[in-house]
Amino acid sequence: MRKLGKVLGILGVTAMAFTACDNQGNTANTNTSAAAGNDTEVSISDLKVAYIHTDSVINNFTFFKEKSAEIADKGKKFESELSNRARGFEQEVANFQQTANNMTPNQSRAKQEELMTKERNLVTYRDNLMQELSADEAQLYNEVYDQIQDYLTTYAEENNLEMILSYTRGGGVWYAKNSLDVTTSVIDGMNSHYKQKKDTTEKK
Predict the structure, then answer these.
(1) How many CB atoms are closer than 10 A to CB 78?
(2) Which end is more exposed in the chain, N or C (fewer Cβ atoms within 10 Å of the end residue's Cβ)?
(3) pTM here?
(4) Nearest to 55 by CA among 190, 188, 192, 187
(5) Rounded distance, CA 75 to CA 54, Å?
(6) pLDDT digit string (tens) for 94-137?
């Protein structure tokens, strides 16, 4: 039987643009992103832009690291449980192979059907475990993206920014000056905000 396999692989990173406001031409309509929540027209020449390395923000976000570790521990527990069940099943198959010659045809067929049912149940159990881990990962990413979205909205307002871009290799931004990189500032701010929130929750 196959075991659970790799529990928590390298987590992918999806490029995101969080706050945007774009005015094209004198007669064009002003488009604003939902994240910005700002209907004020902005001239391209006055556009204040910053960017973050999204993967760095995610991987250095304390909340993400803590929850990823919890998922990894859960995966190890699942793998151990599945391995124990698989070993038990393999032993039962081996015992059947050793005693099959002493069984009647009906007994042999009944045992084979029983083992096939157990094997299907074991595969279903494995698939359910993997689906649960995948769901946990998806939920974690949704929570992290939501927190980044919320924080960057506040960060943009506090720093008078009209746009914060997501800089990833091969993404939509091929060049940007280092002076526009606010990754470290965002990481520090998010971790500080998370720590305060966590400390407040623990005191209750």
Answers:
(1) 19
(2) C
(3) 0.71
(4) 187
(5) 26
(6) 999 999 999 999 999 999 999 999 999 999 999 999 999 999 99
